[in-house]
Amino acid sequence: MVCRLLEFISLSSTTLGSKSLEAFGQSVSDARRAGNADPSKSILAESSKLMGNSSYGGTITDKCKHRVVSYCNDETVNDAINSKRFTQLNVLSNDL
User: Fold this and answer.
1) pLDDT tens across 1-48, in order?
2) What is the DSSP string of 21-42?
3) Residue 85 falls inside a structural domain
4) What's the alpha-carbon Rg for the chain, to the nearest Å?
5) What's the structural domain count of the chain?
6) Structural domain boundaries enclosing 6
């Protein structure tokens, strides 16, 4: 199972949605079904579930919407604006 996960990680950037991803998903499903049918294989089923869920989350999550919020003072605001990750500036007043 680990070999298939490593294969998926190395191929995911170029062949996302291809047969390799389909084979990986099928192997995860097969291992989970085997764990449901035979309690002695429950560790394999749980491990496959974790690998399947983590690979799904990493490939499907839209990371463009993730933001880091920083509060700056007058001295550090220029460094934040000049960062390549800068997206927006909201000025907070003292009249809160």
Assistant:
1) 343 434 444 444 444 556 667 888 888 889 889 988 998 988 888 988
2) HHHHHHHHHHHHHHHHH-GGGH
3) no
4) 22
5) 1
6) 2-62
